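Hello,

Our lab assistant flagged a job as stuck in the queue for most of the afternoon. It eventually completed. Since we weren't sure the result was trustworthy after the delay, we are filing this so someone can double-check. Below is the sequence as submitted and the structure that was eventually returned. Let us know if re-running is recommended.
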Amino acid sequence: TVSYVRVASSGCEDTGLFPVLDRAACSEAALALGCSPGTPSGHSRMATYPPGCFAEHLNSFFVPQRPGNQNKTTQPASWSSLCSSKSYPPWSSNDGFLDQKTISDRVAENDKDVASIFRRNARRTAR
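-- returned structure --
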């Protein structure tokens, strides 16, 4: 399972944790830590800040990765990072993580779906 931690004054990596780089996961982290979705007060230029999940007081917000902000490391002093005990894959299960068996099962299911579509299209074309 994953756990979330609110880290004041430093980034997640500085404490051995992982940044939350997914909007849905950010909402989960915020709820787990007693925050609600919101927007940071007085900070309209989100692209100038590092990507990740943050909180200011009890409001959480997500800064997506954009060209130019991947290497940013400094966030406003009033922001806390919402960090994860595990790294997030690009797509995730209900708890936010996939084990190898789940990945294999999903790939196999996708293969079946694609094969079914090709068969159906081949039958239509043959008519």
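-- support follow-up --
The delay was a queue issue, not a problem with the job. The result is valid. The two ends are 51 Å apart (CA to CA). The longest helix spans residues 100-126.
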